[in-house]
Amino acid sequence: MKRIIRAVSAALLAILFVLALPMGVSAARTKELIVAGTPFGVKMQTEGVIVVGIPNENAPASSAGLKRGDVIVSINGEAIVSAEDFAERVRSSGGAALTLDCKSGAERRSLTATPTTDESGEYKLGVWVKDSAAGIGTITFIDPETMDFAGLGHGICDGAGGEPIPLAFGNAEDVTLTGIVMGKAGAPGELRGTFVGRKMGKLLKNDMTGVYGVLVEIPENLKEEKYPVCRSSDVREGKAYIFATVDGEGRQRYEIEIFGIDRDGNDRNFSVRITDEALLAKTGGIVQGMSGSPIMQDGKLIGAVTHVLVNDPTRGYGIFIENMLEAAR
Fold it and tell me: What secondary structure, in 3-state letters, does the chain show?
């Protein structure tokens, strides 16, 4: 079972999971998109390796200036393709200084680190790294003409600096939901599920606004679920609804309330309050795995659920669909 990736700030939890559509905003306004609200699994391989921990502040990694969340893309000018590749390069260094090419958000820098031996005599830098990420999220929309899709409404981030993890390649996979952990104040819930081993499509982009890619086929039950796109300027406070899949009952429509609209924001454009008693009884509000659930108002697609308030799972944030389409360009 794969769990969705978490990024906690002072008052927010990003519920996971982004993609690249060759479709402009103006074009999208004149066409209809398939509104999904169905779960999918994300498996992505990072570009390079991500520093997830430096257990000893006196380790060579720390002395060199490496920090949690840094992405190491090469050693001595040669690209790193996996965590094992990174470990082998360090082991075979013979203790010679290594030049690490690193990225941290938009910043790129070169560091020098000299491995030391551990108790077994192996050369190490004293750093924990990972090269992949996986989790469960919700598909927001599908373009029926191109098979492009978008999901999550926010990026899969490193959890330290909050930057999207660089994507080398990845897949969207079919999942089966197996249970719900109810959300409550201070302890956000989650949808639990398993990957069933069937590839749904490719991931092409991991962005602050979501994950993006191309599907192999459109699910049969969604082929007629086409709706027009709403301009951000037409979104209003008040009643709306989401499409979400949280249990064996499948994709359902649930009522919400929209308030606190910020038309100048990028990824948290308005607040969302869950008002549907049926959904509250099932999940307690917004839980991990629901990120990407499409939001509808007046019969139009206006955006997607992105975050939950840690201290109040009935409330969270949404992103304008225009911002997801802009990122998809």
Answer: CCCCCCEECCCEEECCCCCCCCCCHHHHHCCEEEEEEEEEEEEEEEEEEEEEECCCCCCHHHHHCCCCCCEEEEECCEECCCHHHHHHHHHCCCCCCEEEEEEECCEEEEEEECCEECCCCCEECCCEEEEEEEEEEEEEEECCCCCEEEECCCCCECCCCCCECCEEEEEEEEEEEEEEECCECCECCEEEEEEEEEEEEEEEEEECCEEEEEECCCCHHHCCCEEEECCHHHCCCEEEEEEEECCCCCEEEEEEEEECCCCCCCCCCEEEEECCHHHHHHHCCCCECCCCCEEEECCEEEEEEEEEECCEEEEEEEEEHHHHHHHHC
Total count of domains within the chain: 2
Among this protein's residues, is 307 annotated catalytic? no
Active-site residue, from 131, 154, 207, 232: 154
The question of whether 154 is a catalytic residue gets the answer yes
What is the domain range of residue 99?
Answer: 55-126
**319 and 301 in one domain?**
yes
Is 291 annotated in the active site? Answer: yes
Per residue in 50-108, pLDDT tens?
888 888 888 899 989 998 888 899 999 999 888 899 999 999 999 999 999 988 777 88
Task: Pick the catalytic residue from 148, 291, 293, 307.
Answer: 291
pLDDT in tens, 231-286: 999 999 999 999 999 998 999 999 999 999 998 877 789 999 999 999 999 999 99
Give the mean model confidence (pLDDT) for residues 26-38: 75
Domain shared by 252 and 321, yes or no: yes
Q: Assess whether 108 and 251 both reside in one domain.
A: no
Query: Whole-number mean pLDDT of the chain?
Result: 86
| CATH number for position 121 | 2.30.42.10
